[in-house]
Specification:
485 residues, mainly alpha
Length: 485
């Protein structure tokens, strides 16, 4: 993995992109103007009789000044083919369906960093962390390639030798890195017979209900906080192998925040709206007129028109989102100790610890961005050493991938997982190492399945969502994440 650090393409991409994005964020706030008005795409959508219905009302963004508009003609939506990999991340699925990354769902660190910046304005530090971790724990280290879905031979660059690493599960591999229990859009691996990669209708309907009840009709941070509390409670109460330890648990919470942070029409906290038409298109939700049920269709940039956020989301904002949803859910549930696991039966939760305990104390605070960032880095380091110590001795150099993302937080050099995670391996839901080589079965399910997503419907004609009684809400209706104190 030292190859990543020495790769001129990746190093130059991250450094150059990061600097440009810092300037972009500065310019956005220096030149910010508020513009009231209706976008032409909404007018076109309102006049169209061929549109997809959806239950909640629509909202106009209040500020689209200088924002990049999508879809782009050069990147048309295409239905994924049966052999194309799709997985638990709606954003990656969307980029593959439009050709920003390879349409077959086999991508590289460099390609996914560039695409995430282009489509979602994801900061280079955040995308480097996510893409680097995807390769470390679920992909092919020598070629820096990974599957955005299930296990796939196309990611193995070294044949039998590469297979000995046993890591190429793809992102659908349970608890490998970005996938985990209590997801904002997917079912738990052990609750749905291993299907942790398709949009789950029940989970989405809860998300919709929280938008209606707590978000004023928007899929905003207040709604997402309640949705995370609901999904956490359901998983913990029903999944005998519920496992909620960082880094996977923290990334699951972060991915729930991404629903508003990246999929809003416009900029979260600055005039953008987390409207259902945008969120449903990016997550692949299709609503039945008669029953109100949800069917999964391939994720797509909203064909009715969508504005990308105006400045990059850096790693610090992602951690703000994690802290905000965690502290809000903990307050709702009346229990701050959300990290821990079940012991083999539903509701047998034990070993609980809090976000502030995880984040540590002293110089790096408790529930602070720096504290959580540094603790996540330690967790990744500890997981990596646990996974690979028996077969390679270059753990420290491999984790140099994370120097750029975590450098700004002034973290100490990691030496292992945070102390509060010491008993994680004792739980039956703990992810066994090398699942494609040594531990293909865990609790009766394959940890290295080649499954990719299946759909109940396709949107080949790129039909837009209908315009439902649109209003222009107050800019504060889609707030930036602010943690509880």
């Amino acid at each position: 993995m030292e190859a990543i650090k020495r790769s001129p393409e990746v190093v130059h991409l991250i450094q150059d992109l990061y600097q440009k994005q810092q300037n972009e964020k500065r310019d956005f706030f220096e030149n910010r103007e508020v513009e009231q008005g209706v976008e032409s795409s909404n007018e076109k959508r309102a006049a169209s009789s061929n549109c997809l219905t959806h239950p909640l009302p629509d909202f106009y963004p209040t500020n689209i000044t200088g924002l990049k508009k999508f879809p782009e003609v050069a990147y048309p939506y295409q239905d994924p083919q049966p052999s194309d990999q799709r997985g638990p991340c709606p954003g990656l699925n969307t980029m593959a369906n439009h050709g920003y990354i390879n349409r077959n769902g086999i991508t590289t660190i460099a390609q996914s960093i560039a695409a995430a910046a282009q489509v979602f304005n994801m900061g280079a530090d955040l995308s480097a962390f996510l893409a680097g971790g995807s390769v470390l724990f679920a992909g092919d280290i020598p070629s820096m390639t990974y599957s955005i879905g299930g296990a796939d031979a196309r990611t193995n660059s070294l044949g039998i030798v590469g297979g000995s690493l046993g890591t190429e599960t793809g992102l659908s591999g349970h608890l490998r890195f970005k996938e985990g229990d209590a997801s904002g859009t997917r079912c738990d691996f052990y609750l749905c017979n291993g299907d942790n990669h398709n949009l789950n209708p029940s989970v989405f309907l809860d998300l919709q209900n929280t938008a209606k009840t707590y978000g004023g009709g928007q899929y905003n941070v207040p709604a997402l906080t309640q949705h995370f509390a609901h999904q956490y409670t359901k998983s913990r109460s029903n999944n005998p192998y519920f496992y909620f330890f960082p880094p996977q648990a923290a990334l699951v919470i972060g991915a729930t925040y991404f629903i508003a942070g990246f999929f809003s029409n416009g900029t979260i906290g600055a005039g953008g709206v987390a409207n259902e038409a945008s969120i449903a298109s990016f997550t692949g939700a299709y609503f039945s007129n008669s029953s109100g049920s949800v069917t999964y269709m391939p994720e797509q940039i909203p064909p009715q028109g969508w504005y990308r956020r105006g400045y990059p989301m850096f790693l610090s904002e992602g951690i703000d989102g994690i802290i905000t949803l965690y502290t809000g859910a903990a307050a709702t549930l009346g229990q701050p100790l959300l990290f821990g696991a079940n012991t083999g039966t539903p509701g047998s939760f034990t070993g609980g610890f809090s976000l502030s305990q995880f984040g540590g104390s002293g110089s790096y605070g408790g529930t602070t961005v720096n504290g959580v960032a540094c603790a996540i880095e330690e967790s990744v380091y500890g997981n990596f050493i646990s996974e690979f110590s028996a077969i390679i001795n270059t753990g420290a150099s491999v984790l140099s991938t994370f120097e750029t993302p975590f450098g700004e937080f002034g973290c100490p050099v990691p030496s292992g997982s945070p102390a509060v995670e010491a008993d994680a391996p004792t739980y039956p839901g703990y992810p066994k190492p090398q699942p494609c080589k040594l531990n293909p079965q865990q609790n009766g399910f394959s940890q290295c399945a080649p499954d990719t997503n299946t759909y109940g419907r396709f949107n080949t004609q790129k039909v837009p969502f209908c315009l439902n009684n649109p209003t222009t809400p107050a800019p504060i209706s889609n707030p930036y994440p602010v943690p509880l104190t």
